[in-house]
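Interim report to the steering committee. The following record documents the input for Sgc region protein SgcQ (273 residues).
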Amino acid sequence: MTTTWLDEVFAVRKPVIAMLHLSALPGDPGYDSAGGIAAVVARAREELDELQAGGVDGVMVSNEFSLPYLTKTEPITAITMARIIGELLPAFEVPYGVNVLWDGRASIDLAVATGASFVREIFTGVYASDFGLWDTNIGEVARHRARVGGAGVKLFFNVVPESATYLAARDLAALTRTTVFATLPDAICVSGATAGAPTDAEALRVVKSAAGAVPVFVNTGVRAENVAAQLEVADGAIVGTYFKKDGVFENRAERSRVAELMAQARAFRERLG
């Protein structure tokens, strides 16, 4: 079997990456200034313990509660995330990545600063979104990654962004093929409308068929009851909402829910041989 970068980073087939959603940060409307950074770190540490004890293959740290999101973040966001991740570093037992929503350049900077293996972001396309007109410049971002020493940081491209519609009249297969050819993603993510929303199964199949050798991840809506079916198509999964108490976005990660989904994922991998 040919070894891929996924094998080298995660050492398992079809890895499941858990989202570690940070509480609102300084500058965010929902920031708890009374609790301060200490409260954010305490919650993050607690949830990281739950995710790793439940058996996930990797973790991605994001500022998920920085609602409403910016498409170009303020410096305080990535700076604070770097402080938080620095405090958590001794606790990481699995490969980790970062995502500064919705800012690809800041995500790469944070990965380089914290030693993260991968980032996920919207790196290509122009969209009409809940956050306004959303433009990108992958050529600029790719050159920035090279300048800051981030060539080894793997880039997960989300080609079906949440809360947004691609403005060009192109089908998903064509979009995937040109993204792979012209922008050199390390992996492609396929999402539903929002965090926790189901990913369209047909869209996932279309992207996988068009992506060639580039790994494809299902990015939202993965649950214990569908993880095997999703991994039948996808090369891996990114899971956030399902791992939380009662499957509610705002709640904290719960070990029993993590273990339930990971048991199904491991059983599926065992059937692959």
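The domain at 14-272 is CATH 3.20.20.70 (TIM Barrel). The committee is asked to note this result when reviewing the revised timeline.
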